Amino acid sequence: MRMSRWIDRILLLVIVLAVAAAIPAAAQAQEGDHNHDPFADPTVAPMIMPTVTDFAPEAGDTAVQPDKGDVGVTSYFEFSDTQKAGLLTPFYRLSRSLALKARVPLIFNKTVTFGTNEGKASGLGDVTFEAEYSKVRSAGAVFSFTGSVKLPTGDEEKVDNFIAVPLGTGTLDYFAKAQYAKSQPDFGWVASVIFRKNSGYEFDPWGTSVALTTTTSGNQVIGSVFARKRVNAKWWLHLGASADKIADGAGKTVYTDGTPTFEYDMTSGGTVIDLYPGMSYALGKLNPYLGARVPVSTSWNNEFASTDRDMAFIFQFTYRPDRMAGQ
């Protein structure tokens, strides 16, 4: 038994070291193309990507059943050409059905290119608070509903080398997520639908107090399906897909000198589809995951917008003391 534990620990160390060395190097190797995803958002991606806690507990497996006082942390680290960011999500379960979460994104390096110039920035992103209600529908099946509020804690006016490199949206945004998870001993899947409602961002376009412009990004509807298959006692293979439908935004400028209000549409909407292959290793309380987000299809309503988007490497871990045995 002791030998087995030592082997598990050594394997975990190897995985962590490999991820720490390989992911930044692989992401760095992509530099030079600078393909930007206009909707890269460290808030949205971790909501789409499920963690071990999102998969339904297997029927009869009381060791992983959620309970009052359940506490832990999940993480999501994404490395691409244009952005390297991480997010920690501590959670606490008030009861079997209700859990509270806080999503705290840290942007290690964000790059924006304008012509031949580059702007870079790092810092805190927009923090999100969540309340999740879950209900066991049957053995190995769980339905959950989550409401989220994203605060404008990231610096939306960050500038480097005369280029705007925003770390947040500067707006108070809202999310609603419905999710259904089904698990068997060697297979599980999670399906979810997310709706994002964006608020308007106000600014003085000329700094003269003559006009006030409000721009509102289009709302989003995101559908996703993820599945995992047990390979052996410790290893799981994962595959997921997501489709993000983004509506066009809108703008409005109100003048104080009697000039009529000007309203306009922003053709910023579109549809993006991604695949998420990966693998995870069950190690008691700590479950590391290594995978990728691969763009499959990109279509923007603006015909002149670039459809190039970066592939991103993903590292994720879930730590839930005394609740993870066998997962």
Can you walk through the features of this model?
The structure is a single chain. The chain is mainly beta and 327 residues long. It has helices spanning 2-29, 44-48, and strands spanning 71-79, 83-93, 98-114, 117-124, 128-138, 141-150, 159-160, 163-164, 173-184, 187-197, 200-203, 211-216, 220-230, 235-246, 249-255, 262-266, 270-281, 286-300, 312-319. The protein has one domain (2-198, 229-242, 277-290, 313-319). The chain has 2 helices and 19 strands. The longest helix is centred in the first third of the chain and has 28 residues, at 2-29. Residues 18-36 have low confidence and may be disordered. Strands 1-2-3-5-6-9-10-13-14-17-18-19 form a 12-stranded antiparallel barrel.
State the main characteristics:
10% helix; globular; four-stranded antiparallel beta sheet; single chain; twelve-stranded antiparallel beta barrel; 327 residues; mainly beta
**Which structural class is indicated by helix and strand composition?**
mainly beta
Residue-averaged pLDDT, rounded?
A: 82
Total DSSP helices: 2
DSSP strand content: over 45%
Q: What is the C-alpha radius of gyration, as a whole number of Å?
A: 21 Å
* Number of separate domains: 1
Report how far apart the termini are. Answer: 18 Å
What's the total count of β strands? Answer: 19
Q: Element order, helices and strands?
A: HHEEEEEEEEEEEEEEEEEEE
Low-pLDDT residue spans? 18-36
Largest sheet: spatial strand order: 1-2-3-5-6-9-10-13-14-17-18-19
Largest sheet: 12 strands, antiparallel, barrel
Helix share, percent: 10-25%
Q: Shape, please?
A: globular
